[in-house]
Amino acid sequence: MNAAELRPVGWVRSPVADPSDAARQGDEGAPDVVVELDPSVAAAAADLHPGDDLLLLTWFHLADRATLAVHPRGDTARPVTGVFATRSPDRPNPIGLHRVRLLGVDGLRLHVSGCEAVDGTPVVDVKPVLGAVDER
User: Fold this and answer.
1) CB distance 16 to 31 below 8 Å
2) Bridge partner residues of 70 (DSSP)
3) Which of 14, 67, 86, 88 is the right S-S partner for 33, CB 3.0 to 4.6 Å?
């Protein structure tokens, strides 16, 4: 098996520290957060602008990587489902995907809305949300 190496490009700074207190999805009451970028990637953020819709890829560092099936949304009335068919943070490779809106840029600090990740979550990439084909 080939190893994959990821290094954080930043970290989420959120008022939410405990995963059990986090919104299940960003559009379900997640607070505004700051993505604090590592200085080594400063040039990569040069063309980000308030109002941009972004995809944050995070590493759910508190996740249980041995979990392969869950009751979706923790609801025991729902059948146990393989994690690849859910958005559970507990999974073999706990990569989080968050569609956020960039509210502002302050140096290496990206202020965003719609991110349910907890404080200290490593950010492994930032990508723009693509518009329609004719807008690319």
Assistant:
1) yes
2) 81
3) 14
Under 8 Å between Cβ of 122 and 59? yes
Output 24 or 82, whichever has higher pLDDT.
82
Tokens, residue 91: 């999974």
> What are the pLDDT digits (tens) for 35-60?
999 999 999 999 999 999 999 999 99
Strands (E), 38-121: 53-59, 69-70, 81-82, 95-106, 109-113
- How far is it, in rounded angstroms, from Cα 73 to Cα 70? 8
* Domain annotation for the chain: domains and CATH numbers: 10-129 (2.40.30.70)
What is the rounded distance in angstroms from the CA atom of residue 108 to the CA atom of residue 42? Answer: 7
Residue found by looking up tokens 């809305």 in the block: 113
Q: Are 11 and 120 in contact (CB under 8 A)?
A: yes
User: pTM above 0.90?
Assistant: no
Phi, psi at 124, each rounded to 5°: -105, -15
Nearest partner of 56 among 2, 14, 91, judged by Cα:
14
Which range is least confidently modeled, 16-30, 31-45, 46-60, 78-92? 16-30
